[in-house]
Design brief:
The protein has 17 helices and 15 strands. By secondary structure, the protein is α/β, with parallel strands linked by helices. The strands form two sheets. An eight-stranded mixed β-sheet has the order 4-3-2-5-1-6-7-8, with helices on both faces. It catalyses: (6S)-5,6,7,8-tetrahydrofolyl-(gamma-L-Glu)(n) + L-glutamate + ATP = (6S)-5,6,7,8-tetrahydrofolyl-(gamma-L-Glu)(n+1) + ADP + phosphate + H(+).
C-alpha cells in the first residue's frame, strides 16, 4: 500500500533543491533563468503562461509592496464587481511558510494544494528525465522549481490575472520565462545584489529592465538619472512604451498603512499596473490619472505587507519588525520604525522603565558591516542633543530553534553552515557595534528562539521593553515563527 505524500514531505523534498553556499554564488553569477526545456518537460510551453495575464514587477526596493498593492486592488475590485475571477500572486521570500509565495485570491494555497501540485511537478520532471536517459534526481534549484510550480498551479486553478515579483535582477531571473506580460513595473532602484547584478546603478537598471517585453506597456517610478537613462534605452531597444509614474494626486486621501513617500510611490505604481490589468480583461475604467475608483481606494487601504513596518505586543514586550536589508531601506526603517518607538531610556512610562533592544542579522550579504553602520548612523539625536541608543543589541543567526534547528519551511542552505555554527558573522557585527556604541550591551546568540527569549525576559525584568528587529526578512520570519510556536508566558 502506497503512503500518501504530506506537506512535510513536500517541504523536505523542496529543501533538498537548495544547493549550498558555493553553488548559490556560482548560480547568481550565471543567472537563475528557467530553461525552456524544463518547461517543456512539464508538457507546457512558455506561451501557455500568457493566459495568466501576468503583471511582472522588478526593482530594488518596494517590489514586494507594489505586488501586494496590485493584488489587493484587484481583490477589492473582484469583491465589488465579480471580476477578475481568480487573482494570483507569486512573491518571495516567505516569512513563515513557503506556501506564502504562491497565493490565490489573497491567501496562500493550502497545505493540501501545495503538496498535490508540488508532487505533480516533481514526478513529471523525474519521468521526463528517465524518458530522456537523464538522472531522475536532476531538477531545477529551489527558486526555479517554485517558479515553475507556480505557473503549473495558476494554470490548473484557472487564474485569470497573476502578479509576479522578480527574485533577483530581472534579465536572468527565473520569472523572466514570461513571454508576454500585460504590464511590467520597475520600482525604485538602488545598489543591491552586486555579485549578480554589478556594482553600478546603470548595471542594475540594465538587469531590472530585462523584464520589458515587446509591445507590453512598462511603468516606473522616479529613478536616479543614470538609472532612468538605462531604462529608457532598453525600452527603446525592445519597442516598449515606458511610462513614468509620479505620486498619484489623490493618494493623500487614501489611508495607507504607511504615509512614507516611498510607499506612496509604490501605491501609485500599483494603481497603473492594476488598471492596465483590468483593462486587458476588457473592463472599462475612468481615467486613473484623475480619479480612483472605490475598489482601488479600498485595495490600497486594505493591503498588508507582512514583515514591513509591522508591530505586535506580548505583555511588557513590544515588537517592531521590518525586514529592511539594503542601505536605503535600513535608513527608512530606522526613520519610520525606531524613531516612532523611541522614548528616552531615562524616562518612566506608567512607573515602568523602558529598555530598548535591537535584534539584527544579515547572513548572506558581503556588505553587512556597511549595513550595520548605516543603521547606527541613522539613529540620529534626541531633542536634548543626546544620541538615540539601544540598551541591548542582539546578534543572532537565522536558525529558528535552539535545540531543533530550523523550522522545515525556514531551512536555509544558502550560507556556509560552518560560519553559521561558529556565529562568525554575529561576532564580527558585535565587535563593530562596540566601536560604534560602547555603552550598549552586546549579545551573540545562536538562534532566533534565544533572541526572542532574551527580549521577553528583558521586558519582564525591566518592566517594559521595546524591541526593533531588522536586517533580514528571514530573521523577521523566524521571530514571527517563534512567537507562533512558543507563546509568551
Amino acid at each position: 500500500m502506497s503512503t500518501r505524500n504530506t506537506y512535510h514531505d513536500a517541504v523536505v523534498a523542496l529543501n533538498s533543491l537548495q544547493s549550498g553556499s558555493e553553488a548559490i554564488k556560482a548560480r547568481k553569477l550565471a543567472g537563475n533563468k528557467i530553461d525552456r526545456a524544463v518547461v517543456q518537460e512539464m508538457n507546457e510551453w512558455p506561451s501557455d503562461f500568457n493566459c495568466l495575464n501576468i503583471v511582472h514587477v522588478a526593482g530594488t526596493k518596494g517590489k514586494g509592496s507594489t505586488c501586494t498593492f496590485v493584488s489587493s486592488i484587484l481583490s477589492c475590485y473582484q469583491r465589488l464587481h465579480g471580476v477578475p475571477k481568480k487573482i494570483a500572486l507569486y512573491t518571495s521570500p516567505h516569512l513563515i511558510a513557503v506556501r506564502e509565495r504562491i497565493q490565490i485570491d489573497g491567501e496562500p494555497i493550502s497545505e493540501d494544494q501545495f503538496t498535490k501540485y508540488f508532487f505533480e511537478v516533481w514526478n513529471r520532471l523525474e519521468k521526463s528525465a528517465l524518458e530522456e536517459g537523464h538522472e531522475p534526481t536532476r531538477k531545477p534549484a529551489y527558486f526555479r522549481f517554485l517558479t515553475l510550480m507556480s505557473f503549473h498551479v495558476f494554470i490548473r486553478e484557472g487564474v485569470d490575472i497573476a502578479i509576479y515579483e522578480v527574485g533577483v535582477g530581472g534579465e536572468r531571473d527565473s520569472t523572466n520565462i514570461i513571454e508576454r506580460p500585460i504590464a511590467t513595473g520597475i520600482t525604485s532602484l538602488g545598489i543591491d545584489h552586486v555579485g549578480a547584478l554589478g556594482d553600478t546603478i546603470e548595471s542594475i537598471a540594465w538587469h531590472k529592465a530585462g523584464i520589458f517585453k515587446f509591445s507590453s506597456p512598462a511603468f516606473t517610478v522616479d529613478q536616479y538619472p543614470a538609472a532612468m537613462g538605462v531604462l529608457e534605452e532598453r525600452a527603446k531597444e525592445k519597442n516598449v512604451e515606458l511610462i513614468k509614474v509620479g505620486i498619484h494626486p489623490n493618494i493623500t486621501s487614501v489611508n495607507l498603512k504607511s504615509t512614507a513617500n516611498f510607499q506612496k510611490k509604490n501605491a501609485s505604481l500599483a494603481i497603473y499596473l492594476a488598471g492596465t490589468a483590468l483593462t486587458a480583461l476588457g473592463i472599462q475604467l475612468p481615467d486613473l490619472r484623475e480619479t480612483l475608483p472605490d475598489g482601488f481606494i479600498q485595495g490600497l487601504e486594505n493591503a498588508v505587507c507582512r514583515g514591513r513596518l509591522e508591530s505586535n505586543s506580548e505583555g511588557p514586550t513590544t515588537w517592531y519588525l521590518d525586514g529592511a536589508h539594503t542601505l536605503d531601506s535600513l535608513t527608512v526603517a530606522v526613520l519610520l520604525t525606531f524613531h516612532g518607538m523611541y522614548v528616552l531610556s531615562s524616562d518612566v512610562v506608567g512607573h515602568k522603565k523602558v529598555s530598548y533592544a535591537l535584534i539584527f542579522n544579515q547572513q548572506s550579504r558581503p556588505e553587512v558591516l556597511s549595513l550595520l553602520r548605516a543603521l547606527h548612523d541613522s539613529l540620529g539625536n534626541a531633542s536634548d542633543g543626546s544620541m538615540y541608543a539601544f540598551d541591548h543589541v542582539v546578534f543572532c543567526t537565522n536558525v529558528t530553534w535552539k535545540d531543533k534547528g530550523y523550522n522545515d519551511d525556514l531551512v536555509n542552505r544558502n550560507t556556509d553552515p560552518a560560519i553559521v555554527k561558529d556565529m562568525t558573522v554575529q561576532k564580527e557585527l558585535a565587535a563593530m557595534w562596540k566601536t560604534l556604541d560602547a555603552h550598549a550591551k552586546t549579545h551573540v546568540l545562536g538562534s532566533v528562539e534565544e533572541a526572542v527569549d532574551f527580549a521577553r525576559d528583558l521586558g519582564k525584568e525591566i518592566g517594559r521593553a521595546k524591541v526593533f528587529v531588522t536586517g533580514s526578512l528571514h530573521l523577521v520570519g523566524g521571530v514571527l515563527a517563534v512567537q507562533q510556536g512558543k507563546p509568551f508566558s
